[in-house]
Amino acid sequence: MRKLSPTFIYFFGALGGLLFGYDTGVISGALLFIEKDLNVQSWAEGWITSAVLLGAVIGAMTIGPMSDRYGRKKLLLLSAVIFFVGALGSGFSNTVTLLIISRIILGIAVGAASALVPTYLSELSPAEIRGSVSTMFQLMIMTGILLAYISNYVLQGVAGNWHWMLGLAAVPAALLFIGGLLLPESPRFLVRHNNEKQAREVLNMINNNPDAVDAEIADISLMANEEKKGGFEELFGKMSRPVLIMAMGLAIFQQVMGCNTVLYFAPSIFVSVGFGDSAALLAHVGIGIFNVIVTYIAMKCMDKVDRRWMLNFGAWGMGISLVMMSAGMMLDNSFGFAKYLAVIALTVYIAFFSATWGPVMWVMIGESFPLNIRGLGNSFGAVVNWAANFVVSLTFLPLLSFFGTGKIFLLYAAFCFLSIWFTSKKVIETRGKTLEQIEAELHHRANHNVENSMSNEIA
Ligand code: BGC
Predict the structure, then answer these.
(1) Does ligand 1 have an atom closer than 6 angstroms to the CB of 260?
(2) What is the residue-averaged pLDDT of the chain?
(3) What is the mean pLDDT of residues 181-198?
(4) What is the DSSP letter of 226?
(5) DSSP string, 106-152
(6) Distance from the CA of 137 to the center of ligand 1, in angstroms?
(7) Alpha-carbon distance 269 to 328, whole Å?
(8) Sign of the torsion formed by the C-alpha atoms of 6, 9, 12 and 13
(9) Does ligand 1 have an atom closer than 6 angstroms to the CB of 389?
(10) Which CATH architecture has domain 6-184+226-458?
């Protein structure tokens, strides 16, 4: 097996995130030109925007679960091919229908990546740095979003602008495929499929300490050799249930706290404080840069602070800044400073999201499920997240006209505060534990509960 540096492996392992970010971020800017060019009706506008979300639900649901059977790497390669086809298809589209179909195809790849990458990264990294390595996925998402904003800004004046904006995603897709060919299979998957020799070679690339590798292989084998049911029966079974509830809650809360609607709203908030249209787009680029920087800092802190603490810290910060933003928007006409309050609160909100709920949700759904159903569990979490994303974006405009600009953000703030209760009740701490320790704890919990209920019955 070709020897690769851990940085190479982590970089290409996480690269799917860049396409995720680019393909979801590019459409808001591109749509301005698509509308004029293709004479888009309002029903089609909604479809062009949400086609990726719909595709993502399909991709996470169908491609992700196959990774427990065929391996993480093969499916990553498959998603790179789908990314490529979807990007070229969108770039070359000359009718609305073709564009919507291409965006659904692209979405399938985005969903697949979100169901595969967190598991792949968590299975490849040593426990002490697993949080940081898995956060690379979110860092790539934010970098992809930033590249999308930049391309929207730079390509506005170019002939065939939107075709380029959408089609350019084919470049990282090709890179993902080429890099992906070199990537090793996940060592956990290899052990589970009786390929200990190759698993050892992969772990040796990542960890220079042969004793630690021996111990890791022994631990993984112990988990891999246990008699288990697998599939949905195991996913919904007693042992996995606490993680399933945790993953579903994290996936839903991450969306209903309003991250995508706030990002979507950012340019209009900038316009409301007096930026011109073009300056607002530039400020959007500024937000993109800020996002990447904050996520990078979060990556550095991820293994130093408990995940539960980060979630609660983030929820308080996001909740409070949403209340401030809302106040700023409601006071808008009466006080000059109110508009600035809205801009500052929006920036603070984004910082809290990028540092906490953004990465932590993906890190945790990639690392918490037992080996046997890790791919399936990650996919399940991803499907729930995309479905929640779809519902939030579908309900956003009707809610906006019902509540008004200011008040709608109070609704999202309420979810932030509710998440604090959820985290304290349902989230299991995973920082610093090996994947096998996390699994052993789940076992212990399930057995302990059985013993408890038996002794209750006897009593
Ligand atoms: C979320 C996406 C969001 C992205 C950028 C991810 O963690 O799951 O819905 O678009 O971060 O904010």
Answers:
(1) yes
(2) 91
(3) 94
(4) S
(5) HHHHHHHHHHHHHHHHHHHS-GGGHHHHHHHHHHHHHHHHHHHHHHH
(6) 11
(7) 10
(8) negative
(9) yes
(10) Up-down Bundle (1.20)
